[in-house]
Write a structure and sequence with these properties.
Nucleotidyltransferase, domain 5, single chain, globular, 11 helices, binds zinc ion, binds 5'-O-[(R)-(carboxyoxy)(hydroxy)phosphoryl]adenosine, 43% helix
Length: 363
């Protein structure tokens, strides 16, 4: 599908699905005019994870001001906008509702088109903003809430090739960090602690490696890491032990992601006749060991690879605004009566996997 060509239209993107409050103004020539963002890390840090009620309240307190700041930075008024895009799911329902109600009100008062954006779609389309990538491509979406391999055929046209049966990738990093007392979010801290460590010192399991499907599982790996921590006792915090354990964990996750992605590229080739380009998206895409390994895989398989910059891999308003621009281009405007959705799978035809449900993966 051709990339959007008309220039000059600006869309406001609103993101409140998790612990980042963000608003962004993006023009359809890919210019980011403003992208203020406030992270709630400090508020949630004492609890070692995100507390939904604290998140919703913080979004409520900040969102209006952030939108005003974005417009001020860009020198625009609401009447100048071509549309308002808001993350409507999946995510924490309280935060999502704050974003959705705010967007509805602005769209109603200023008579602007409204776009209900699937947060996963915002991540999945980012490479079209950053790399001008054409459809189709394979996206490995790895974040605090997800581990998915989606074949992206077009805007709103996704084919899920694989998903996690239990924990999301970022969640596994966060849980290990919590066990080690490294704090939240765990991914960057595990990565920092792993620096210089020996990734082969602790043999940890690689769940699903070599299996014919493209699904993931991370809970066994997490349990195995916990057992190593218990065996080591307080010595686990000695710098050399900590570095080796974190490096071993990171390597196990990396090996699983590479193996599953290789399998999905093969699946995609069966569908499309060729292996499509590979895109890495979501917060975990910021991890260097994982990025390097996936670049090597892409080279081996002879496919192009696109990894957006870290600030566009973690949650932000820019990718929501961009998804709005893609939808504006196709005339996919939503009615005003949209609703926040805690769960919202990208590919509604995909079969539920083992472990799905209230305790299962989020989509
Ligand atoms: O996409 P994101 O900002 O929010 C969600 O939609 O979940 O992803 C946040 C997740 C957290 O679990 C965090 O620990 C993980 O991404 N993460 C990382 C790294 N940076 C963030 N995981 C591994 N290595 C990193 N460098
Ligand atoms: Zn996200």
């Amino acid at each position: 599908m051709a990339l959007p060509t008309i220039s000059g239209r600006v869309v406001l993107g609103i993101e409140t699905s998790c612990d980042e409050t963000a608003a962004a103004l993006v023009r359809d020539d890919r210019t980011v005019l403003a992208a203020p963002l406030v992270s709630q890390l400090a508020e949630h840090a004492p609890y070692g994870g995100i507390v939904p009620e604290i998140a919703a309240r913080a979004h409520l307190e900040r969102l209006d001001r952030l939108i005003a700041r974005a417009l001020e930075e860009a020198g625009l008024g609401l009447a100048d906008l071509a549309g308002i895009a808001v993350t409507a799911g999946p995510g924490l329902i309280g935060g999502l509702t704050v974003g959705v109600v705010t967007a509805q009100m602005l769209a109603l008062v200023h008579r602007r088109p409204l776009f209900a954006i699937n947060h996963l779609e915002a991540h999945a389309l980012t490479a079209r903003l950053t790399h001008g990538l054409d459809f189709p491509y394979l996206v490995l979406l790895v974040s605090g809430g997800h581990a998915q391999l989606q074949l992206v055929h077009g805007v709103g046209r996704y084919e899920r090739l694989g998903t996690t049966l239990d924990d999301a990738v970022g969640e596994a990093f966060d849980k290990l960090a919590k066990m080690l007392g490294l704090g939240y979010p765990g991914g960057p801290r595990i990565e920092a602690a792993a620096r210089g460590g020996d990734p082969s010192r602790f043999p940890l399991p690689r769940p699903m490696l070599g299996e014919p499907h493209c699904n993931f599982s991370f809970s066994g790996l997490k349990t195995a890491a916990r057992l190593r921590i218990l065996e080591l006792g307080p010595a686990v915090l000695e710098p050399a032990n900590l570095a080796d354990l974190c490096a071993s964990f990171e390597q196990a996750v990396t090996d699983v992601l590479v193996d599953r992605t290789r399998r999905a590229l093969e699946r995609a080739r069966e569908r499309l006749g060729v292996r499509p380009p590979l895109v890495l998206a979501g917060g975990v895409a910021a991890n260097r060991r994982i990025g390097t390994a996936l670049r090597a895989l892409a080279e081996e398989e002879g496919v192009a690879v696109a990894i957006p910059p870290p600030a566009l891999c973690t949650d932000n308003g820019t990718i929501v605004a961009w998804a709005g621009i893609e939808r504006l281009e196709l005339g996919l405007v939503d009615p005003l009566a949209i609703e926040a959705r805690a769960r919202w799978p990208l590919d509604p035809t995909a079969e539920p996997v083992l472990g799905a449900g209230t305790k299962g993966p989020k989509a």
